[in-house]
Queue: 2 jobs
Job 1
Amino acid sequence: MSKLIYRLLIVALSITGLVAQMYPNKFYNLTYYTTQSSIIVMLFFAYTAYLMFSRQFERLHSSNFLRLKGGVTIMIALTFLVYAILLAPQASPEDFHTINNYTLHYIVPVMVILDWLVLDKGWHYRAIEPLTWAIVPIIYLIFSLIKGYILRIPIPEAKHSPYPYFFLNVDKSGWQTVLTYILVIAIFYIVSGYLMLAVKKMQATFTQHMTK
C-alpha cells in the first residue's frame, strides 16, 4: 500500500506542476522538454498505479515494463540535471521560486529516481538499453530545431523564442555551438544510462550474494 501511495503522489505532484505550468492558457509550454517529460512520467506512474491496484503484478515486474521504466527514469533525470546545471543559474528569482519549478524540476525527478533505485529489483536490462533510451531526447532536440529554425514558431514569454532553450538558439550562438551542446547532452545521456545499468547490476549481484 505504501508503494501505491508513493506512486500516486508522483502522479499528483506531476499534475500539480503541469497545471501550474500551463494554467490558464499557457499551452505553449508544451514546447519544453520539462513539460513533455513530466507528462510522460504522470501517464507512466498512473498506469503503474493502475497495475498495482488491479493486482497485475506479473506485468508490473516484467522485463519490458522495467526497461520502459528505466527510459522514463533517465528522461526525467535529464530534466533535473539539465535544469540544475544549465538553466537554474540563469533563472530569475520570480521564475525559480514557483510551484511548477519545484515540482517538475526537483521533487518529481528525485522521487522517480528513488523509486527506480529502491523499488526495482533484479536485472532486466540489455546492453543496448541506454542507446534506445536516448532516442526520445534526440527526437525532441531535432523537433525543437525544426520548429525554431525552419518553422519559426514563436514561444510567448520565452527569452530565446522561437527556441525553447538558449543552447538551441542557432540565431544567437550558431550551428557549431548548438551542435556541440547537442553532442555533449547526447553523450552525457548515454553515459548516464550505462551508469544506471552499472548501479542495477551491482544491486542485483549484491542481492544474489545476500540470498546465498
Job 2
Amino acid sequence: MRTFVYVDGFNLYYGALKGTPWKWLDLPALFARVLQPHHDILKVKYYTARVSGTLADPSKPQRQDVYLRALQRYRTEVEVYFGHFLSHTVRAPLAQPAGNVRTATVIKTEEKGSDVNLAVHLLNDGWLDVYDCAVVVSNDSDIAEAMRLVRQQHGKRIGLVTPGNRGVSRQLLAHADFARRIRTGGLQQAQLPDPIPGTNIGKPSRW
C-alpha cells in the first residue's frame, strides 16, 4: 500500500522526544516499526520551524540544523517544510496575584504554519493520488477537517499516530481508519547511524 507519513515535528518532540536520549531519530525506520508490513512508505513529510538559541541553550539552532541535514542526507524519502515562530506581548493573569496586581505583560511565542502546511499537503497529495494511505503523526485537532475531507472526498485510508502517552484527540480519531502510538522502545530502535555514512555529520555531543 502506497503510504505517505505527515509528521508534526513539534508535536512529536514534545509528545515523545523531549527529555529522552532518542532525538537522533530515523523517521522512516520508526514508522516502518509502527506501521504494519503492507505499508510501503514512499515519503515522510516533516513539518517544523527554525528554533532560536537562548541564554541557557545557545546551541539549539546548530543541533537542529545538524539533525535535519543528517536526516535528509541519510533518508532521501524525507522532505522538510518550515513554518515560523511569532512572538508578541500579551496581558496574562498571574497565578498568584499580589495585592491589586493581578496581571502582567508577557512575551508569548507561538509556532505558526506547521499544522496548516501539513493539512494543505495532506489534501493536495490526496487529490494528486500519490498515496493510498496517509498517516498523520500529531495530536493537534486542527488537522481533523483535512483528515475528514481526504477520507470522504478522496476515498483514502487515514492512519493516526500519537506521540507518547497523551490522550488521543477525539476529533482526529473520529476520522482515522486506524490508530497507533509511538513507544519508547520504537524510538530506541530507530536511531540514525553516528556518524552518517559517507559524511562528517555526527550526533551533537549534548544530545
